[in-house]
Amino acid sequence: xxxxxxxxxxxxxxxxxxxxxESNATVxxxxxxxxxxxxxxxxxxxxxxxxxxxxxxxxxxxxxxxGLTGLDALFTGPTALAFVSGDVVxxxxxxxxxxKANPLLVIKGGVFEGKAITAADxxxxxxxxxxEVLLAKLAGAMKASMGNAAALFQAPLAQAVRTVAALxxxxxxxxxxx
Length: 178
Known about the structure:
By secondary structure, the chain is α+β, with helices and mostly antiparallel strands. It has 6 helices and 5 strands.
């Protein structure tokens, strides 16, 4: 029976390792004191993230197996992991807003692009605008630049047309005066 338990733990570590590797980011939280209803609400608010409660020893081993360093100090107390597969900013916003409404949720830190980040770094990510907003701003800036370029290219033509029209008017006036 002891072998079965060890096999189960090895399976859990392998599953967590795979999640660490496949995720865009992972945020570690302490959920002590939150009700099941609140945790369900948190899971719904995270969008493209999967929120999982894990034993510290198993999660620590999985992080090491995934090649992640600098997280050992975060694996204390009851730990839950938010594995983000979608927009990292959206998930960070969801965690930050939930933590603001439910102070029992403590953001400990996490991993972003393979590097350990602090709770303050997660807060900075949450303060960024979403990917869609940034892309919309970029598209707007590009459209404005293109409009300015078009106006710039049209200006010499318009100037030339006005000059020709002025010369033509001048000739007609001189012809009428003579």
